[in-house]
Structure formats: C-alpha cells, structure tokens
Fold:
Amino acid sequence: MCQLLAMNSKHPADIGFSFAGFRARGGLTDDHIDGFGIAYFEPTGLRLYCDDKAAMDSPLAELVSQTRTKATTTLVHIRKSDDDLLSNAHPFTREIWGEAWVFTHNGKMTIKDAPDSDPIKKESAHYYAPIGDTDSEFAFCYLLNRLKERFEYKPDDQTLHAFLTTQCRFLADYGLFNCLLSNGEWLLGYATTLLFYVTRQAPFGTATLIDINKTIDFAAVNDADDIITVFATTPLTDDEDWQQLAVNECIVFANGQRVHQNLPPAPEYLSIEEGLEIAKNA
Amino acid sequence: MCQLLAMNSKHPADIGFSFAGFRARGGLTDDHIDGFGIAYFEPTGLRLYCDDKAAMDSPLAELVSQTRTKATTTLVHIRKSDDDLLSNAHPFTREIWGEAWVFTHNGKMTIKDAPDSDPIKKESAHYYAPIGDTDSEFAFCYLLNRLKERFEYKPDDQTLHAFLTTQCRFLADYGLFNCLLSNGEWLLGYATTLLFYVTRQAPFGTATLIDINKTIDFAAVNDADDIITVFATTPLTDDEDWQQLAVNECIVFANGQRVHQNLPPAPEYLSIEEGLEIAKNA
Structure:
C-alpha cells in the first residue's frame, strides 16, 4: 500500500510544510519506503521527479525539501510494495489532447489477474499502454483510453468530471482505488477507503504536523486571497478541520475550491483504523 | 540553438565525466542557458529530469553531478532559445507500445509556420500532440504518430530503424534537424549539421575534457568488456578519435556498438565552424 498527498491552489503555492510531515511516512513514522515521486504543475509546465528510493533517503526528496517550488497543483506519492522498480514509481504521466495529465494511486487491485475476456482487458490498449507492471498504471491507461475513445477533443470540465466519476466507479470494482488525478487546472480525488482534505483560506490559522515536530502560521506565509486545498491519505495535522471522502465519493477542486462532487446515496465513512486494516489485509 | 549529449553502453555506465564538460556549455564556456534536461534509462526504468534553469545553475544538474547514476542509455540537452518555459525543456518523452521513448533535438525548424495543408500538419495529431510550443516536440510527435499508424505492434529493430531513417529525412526538409532518440535499448542519432560520437572500449586510454580542466583514465573505471559510445554536438575531449556524422546520416547504437547506419551517397561533412555559423544564422 502507499500514501497520497496533493495540493491545489488559486495561486502557485509551496507544498513544503505538508511535504515535511508526509515525507516522514516514507521511512521514519511509517514504512512506505519502496519509491517516491512528486509532480508540480508550475506556471510554465510540468516538473515530475520519480525515485525508487524511500522519501526519507531519496536525494530528490531532499532537493524537494530544500526548494521552495511553487505550483498550482502538486501530487506526491510514497510507495509500499513488493518491488522498488523505477518503472513502477508514481506519479504516472501521459499526454492527452496536448495536455500533461498526472495520476497517482493507493490501493491493491486485481486488474492484471483479470481474464482477457474481462471488460477492463478487452477494451484496453489502443492509445495508451502501461510501461511498468502495476495495476495503478494500468488503471490510469484505462481511464485515458476511455477518454480518448469517447472524446476526440477535450470536452468541457463538467462533462469531463462526470465521465471520470463513472470511470472511477467502474475501476473501484477491481479493488481498493484511492486516486488523485490532475491536468494542472483541476485536481480530482476518488476514494474507496481513506482520503481526506482540508481547505486553508482567510482567516488563516496555525497548524501542527502529526508526523514531525513542526508548526506553521499560515497567515504569515499566505496572502489574504489565497485558497489552498490539501489532500492526504490520512490527516497531516492534528489541529485542522480535515474532511473525509465517503466510500466511492468523487470530488474535484480548481483554484483551491470545490467544483464537482459526486457523493453516493447513504454515504459511508470508514474509520482510519478500519481503512488501514483493509489496506493491511489487501 | 541547443547542444546534445548522449551515451549508450553494453553495461550500465555513469555519464559523469562527459557531463562535467558538457554542463560547462550551459553557462560557463557557452551560452545554452535556457533549460537543461537529462533522461537515464536505468535497469529498472526511466528517470527523467527537466529544468528551466541553466545547467550551471540548476539544482537538478548539481544533483546529477553529485550522483553516480548508471544507465545503459542517457540523453542530455542544454537549451538556447527565446524562452525558458519548463514545458519546452528537453528531453521529451512519450509511451509507445508500452515503452518509454525519449527524444532530444538541436536545430531550428519551420514546422509551426507551415500551412495547415502541408503534409506535416495534415497528418499530425491522432495519437500524440505536443504539450509545449517547440518545433522539436512537434517533430517527436510526428515521428510517433507515423510509427503508431504504420505499426500496430512494435516491429523488429531493422524495420524500425529503416522507417525512422526515412521519417528523419522527411523532417530534415523542415530545417536543422540534429536529434537523438532512444527507447532504452538502442540510441539513434541523426544529423543535418553537427553531431559527433566516440566509442570507448579496451584497450582503454585516457581522455581530457575541452571545456574544463579534467582528465580521466578509462582503464581505471571500466571493465575489460565495457563498450561505451558517447554522442555530442561537438567533441568533448581533445585527445580521442571522434567520428562525425555526415549531413543526413542516420546511425543507431545498441550495447555501445553500431547496429544501423544509413549514409547518403557522396556524404558531406561540415566543419565545426560551418556548423556553428549555420546554427547562429538559423
């Protein structure tokens, strides 16, 4: 299993504070040590680093810690798996309609083991195919193949988000599917077990990380009109109002604000303990 | 204009020595300061970094200098352009037939200005489209679109290299087209002005960089059966036997050795001065 972190904001923002706590889970406070990756949608393009090393040991993760890179959307992944192959490190990226899209996933799925007659295999690899051998990358390629088959040109965001919700629900039938997806303009989150978010905006307060001893005063580092939403597998701070995604909820943020939400009828919320237990047994 | 560097070898090898000299051209001995990028095909996957900063200033380039990363194929680019957009930084990558391919280019082309009725525009964007706005990325997407249209599955290498030679010749009609292309197994070089290579193998000698004060004894760092070929826009050392590609020559290396060569009848070789002058006036 792995853990996810992401940020989407109105203005380019630095993920440094949240990353400091999250990074610790890659070898210090938790054992997601089989890879690390980060994707920044900067104002002039995508910057993406992947490493087969643990976040706590990775020179790239150290560079990330020392650099105040500002981006409107940032996605981070720490990996726990049976292998540490570089080709299996998240985030994954592909180009669609001339845009760079980035995907990162947490969960165990059964796509690779599905028979060739299964819908997910039958309709698969026309435009996109996985390079590594993870179910995660297969799921990303599946999403993109469906999109490109259905839409020759990029549809409007509302159509796109509704279509993506349907496809994520389909993928969720194949196992644990907590994912984050972005084209740099919007950030989509989908959960089948654990995914939380918090929106930071004026009046800004302070926050204290759970994993390491660090407190920040957001008022000192943000402008009054900043709006920043952070996603994480489990909350990174113990003094903010983190919202949980329901099982099979799909949510999209742009400019730090929610622009799409699809909540199942009678939404169900797992406790963190239940979610971690499911992950452990997967 | 930009400059290119690449290495292809029988066993994973460290590009550090060649990179030390090449990096200097990104702000110290030359002015290719509008971006830097490197792609390593490591044994377990592709590692790719792009930066909008000059190689001499880039923290990523510094990390590359300090890390002895070993790869069977490595491609490096230093950029000189009118912009320093991250989305325009080389090397570019796309997935085709489940493989990561990497492309880097030096030269000024006229693809973007071509009318929509031009063959290069008419047949363009079905599978792949550029994300940034360089002719270089457009040319890469053009190559991949032709490949994917022509071959549903990856053909044998001989067929592939012959097809790529033809497509490179076609692209060379649109301006200066010095490029390097790799899928990690082989490394293709095509030149319309300047591109040189040297093969280092037993008995290994010493080499001295032109751009900085550094000498290496290859016998001390290589095994007897190592074979390593290095490409560069102009030679990096002044005491090795660099071979020049003829105008419109296409050459492919695998395991450090030449596996394909297509030389025009009556091959023409530009002097370095002529080549640099053409680049300057482009």
Remarks:
- Chain A is about 25% helix and 30% strand.
- The domain at 3-281 of chain A is CATH 3.60.20.10 (Glutamine Phosphoribosylpyrophosphate, subunit 1, domain 1).
